[in-house]
Design goal:
heterodimer; A: mainly alpha; Ferritin; globular; B: Nucleotidyltransferase, domain 5; DHBP synthase; 21 helices
Chain lengths: 213, 567
């Protein structure tokens, strides 16, 4: 799956990096993802029964926190207008999946991230430097992503020696998430239209309630 | 003799509170567990935490109470957006998506989640929840209760007469004229996040002058009774649930300040924004003071005013009400905002089942206890130096006196937005540069944000004036600093010479009073243990992550002393 993500990133990278505004938007999205990851790892550290694994999750969370800050700063440097708050949310992945599946999910996410960052670096190589030195930032983050993929892989082997099935399940889950996201986008559009129509139909009745004077 | 769960959710600051036999036994904000600041989602984790703390099985819950009436709120959203046709189109679409996306079904969600029958789940009005969260735990009898927030179902301000444990409504101001939403709009105009940045506006106000009264008079009128009238073309909350203000406000006050731009308070542009904050603060204080007078008139036998709702967190306004208002005492509960609604709802539910719920709240430490054994094991795995010093207080005092920062995670976590010494970052309150150091290096926040002092009863009057015991325990009012405070603890004072001082007593917190007895001065700087944009730490893992990311001398977890990377 990471190969697909890498290929897609290579395809879109020239388009994204050709505009500082688009690049800033994408990098701001990275900051958002890293902040969400801090929360996931922090929740995992709280819930795992193993203090040793809790320590590893906390180290991971500290890295992600640093990445989020680096990306937020980079987004601002690429486009000063891109300085909105980095909103975070959580899917409570550890609670929902359990530790082994959570690790498989994180492991795959790190591999996917690595493939995407590799593709961005390949695109940026040899091009004119951009504000905020995105290559240096991405290269620094990439080093950590390698380490994260390695330790989550090792922990996964420890918790689930036959991890093939688990990884396949998580890959399916990831595809299902993408499908749901697309469904949500479509239903949001439909809702906007029907909500607007409903408003136009109902409003004349309610204007009678409008206070006079 | 009932077990009642109160819940607030789906607007901001979701929380759960458990009341058993009329006493509050646990209260937890969802953000502390989910780690999402101001988390408004259904507080499943906070509910589970409350049940764990009290060792109660969901099956043992007699009643679950939601802090507002979902269908009344739905009706208000529909009415306000439909009667403003055609401007309310986007507000209707967005607002209905929020309401129908889960909010109106919250009672069913609660029933299913806890496995209760439908008649075990009830909802109480939003402002009544707020009023109960202050009056029933204030220890005052009788009391006037003033609730001021953005908006509940339809009320934005209400006055209640609390007598014999009952709350009798005396006055309400309906939506859309709202003091809370006015302040929220100014918060957004100044480039801060609504429902989060209001206290930044209050801090910024001290750097400006309230010289824009004429401009403000064009869009807000404060009447003699404290009610307000807002200009419908300036404020947009009537037509949109998330957009606070329209172009008319920028025509009056100049362009809104972009989010995230670094503050330079001596730059004329930022000085103007400080004046906007100062004027907004002055308007808010005037309105609150007039409302307090109205409350006194309507509840003639009451000596105490209980304040609740998000506006009650404005500690400067509370000071003015205390000093210039007609009441002898003022009480503000530690969680005056929406989280506090969960406590009010639980107390009202227990009262409805016949329990006597009227008892003073002695302590805000209502969350989960720190797990020192777990902290020791995880810290050891991180390679941190972990010790159990024989004289921990002496060691802590030495570190603080030497200028070190000390992170503290001990006992049960606090309820409400203030860290009161259980999940705190402590420092020596001098020199003044300590404040800048903490703001810039640790909290990574605006330079105008004040830090608060904590001191003992014996020392309090030497450093601060205007003591009000009901408020000092929970850090819900400002105090003027004395000359001694200006000399000895400048880092804990705001630019206007006030401080949001906390008073601790040996009976309720022997550890912190013991520490204050060992430091060079009996005053410490006390700020919440959290990184920028994050909720206050709750579990020991959160505190360890804080230690990993910040330059602090050590972390104290109960009787453990943890330092980074020296094993």
């Amino acid at each position: 799956m990471s190969l697909i993500f890498g290929a897609l990133t290579r395809l879109f990278a020239p388009f994204v990096w050709s505009s500082p505004r688009r690049a800033a938007r994408m990098v701001h999205g990275f900051a958002h993802a890293e902040r969400a990851s801090v929360i996931d790892m922090q929740q995992a550290a709280r819930h795992t029964p193993s203090p040793a694994r809790a320590a590893q999750y906390l180290r991971h969370a500290a890295d992600e926190w640093r990445h989020a800050q680096l990306f937020a700063r980079l987004a601002h440097k690429l486009d000063a207008a891109r300085s909105g708050p980095v909103h975070v949310d959580t899917e409570h992945l550890y609670d929902t999946l359990g530790e082994a599946s959570f690790l498989a999910f994180v492991h795959m996410g790190e591999q996917r991230g690595r493939a995407q960052f590799d593709a961005h670096l390949a695109h940026l190589a040899g091009r004119a430097p951009l504000p905020g030195r995105p290559r240096a930032v991405i290269r620094g983050v990439l080093r950590d992503e390698h380490q994260h993929a390695a330790y989550t892989g090792a922990l996964l082997d420890e918790l689930e020696p036959r991890r093939g099935g688990l990884v396949a399940r998580m890959a399916r889950r990831q595809l299902w998430r993408q499908w749901l996201r697309a469904g949500r986008a479509l239903s949001s559009g439909l809702y906007l239209v029907t909500g607007g129509l409903l408003y136009v139909l109902c409003a004349p009745l309610f204007t009678l309630l409008r206070p006079r004077g | 003799m009932a077990t009642v769960l109160g819940v607030s959710a789906h607007y901001h600051d979701a929380a759960a509170c458990l009341v058993r036999d009329g006493a509050v036994v646990a209260a937890v904000q969802q953000e502390r567990i989910s780690r999402v600041k101001n988390d408004a989602s259904f507080p499943a984790a906070a509910i589970a935490q409350c049940l764990r703390i009290a060792d109660v099985d969901p099956g043992a819950i007699d009643r679950a109470v939601f802090y507002e009436q979902p269908f009344a709120k739905l009706e208000r959203v529909m009415r306000s957006t439909l009667t403003t046709f055609p401007h309310g189109l986007s507000g209707f679409v967005a607002g209905m998506a929020r309401q129908l996306g889960g909010r109106v079904f919250v009672l069913d969600h609660l029933r299913e989640h806890l496995g209760l029958s439908r008649d075990q789940v009830m909802a109480v009005p939003h402002h009544q929840s707020h009023a109960a969260s202050a009056y029933l735990v204030s220890g005052a009898e009788p009391a006037a209760v003033l609730v001021v927030d953005g908006v509940g179902e339809n009320e934005t301000t209400s006055i209640w007469h609390g007598t014999g444990g009952a709350l009798v409504p005396r006055y309400t101001q309906p939506f859309p004229d709202s003091l809370g939403l006015f302040y929220a709009a100014i918060t957004a105009y100044l480039g801060f996040a609504v429902n989060e940045g209001e206290y930044k506006v209050m801090g910024l106000a001290a750097f400006g002058q309230p010289r824009l009264e004429e401009e403000f008079a064009a869009f807000i009128t404060v009447h003699d009774d404290g009610s307000v009238t807002l200009d419908r073309d300036t404020f947009l909350h009537m037509v949109h649930p998330t957009r606070a203000f329209g172009p008319r406000l920028e025509q009056r006050l100049g362009p809104a300040r972009p989010f995230g731009r670094p503050w330079r308070l001596f730059d004329p542009a930022d000085a103007h924004y400080a004046d906007v904050a100062a004027t907004a603060q002055a308007v808010l204080e005037t309105a609150l003071l007039r409302l307090a007078r109205t409350a006194h008139r309507l509840c003639g036998d009451a000596d105490t005013l209980c304040l609740a709702g998000g506006v009650a967190l404005n500690v400067r306004a509370v000071r003015r009400v205390l000093d210039e208002g007609p009441f002898h005492e003022v009480f503000v509960a530690p969680a005056a905002g929406d989280a506090g609604g969960a406590m009010g709802a639980a107390l009202l539910g227990a009262q409805d089942l016949g329990d006597d719920v009227q008892r003073p709240l002695a302590d805000a430490a209502l969350g989960a206890p720190a797990d020192a054994a777990r902290a020791q094991a995880v810290a050891a795995s991180l390679g941190f130096a972990v010790a159990r010093p024989s004289d921990l207080l002496g060691q802590a005092a030495r570190v603080l006196d030497d200028g070190g920062l000390l992170a503290v995670c001990r006992g049960r976590s606090e309820w409400g937005p203030r860290a009161l010494g259980h999940r705190s970052l402590l420092a020596r309150p001098r020199p003044a540069a300590v404040q800048d150091r903490i703001n810039a290096q640790v909290k990574r926040r605006e330079p105008f944000r004040p830090l608060a002092p904590v001191t003992t009863r014996d020392a309090f009057d030497g450093y601060f004036g205007g003591r009000c015991d009901k408020l000092q325990r929970f850090m819900t009012v400002t105090n003027p600093a004395t000359a001694k405070a200006r000399r000895d603890c400048p880092a804990a004072l705001h630019v206007d010479g006030t401080a949001r001082a906390q008073l601790v007593e040996a009976a309720s917190d022997p550890w912190l009073t013991g520490l204050l007895a060992r430091t060079a001065e009996p005053v410490l700087l006390n700020t919440s243990l959290n990184a920028a944009g994050e909720p206050i730490c709750d579990a020991v893992e959160d505190a360890l992550l804080f230690l990993m990311r910040h330059r602090v001398a050590a972390l104290v977890v109960d009787d453990l002393w943890i330092e980074r990377g020296r094993r």
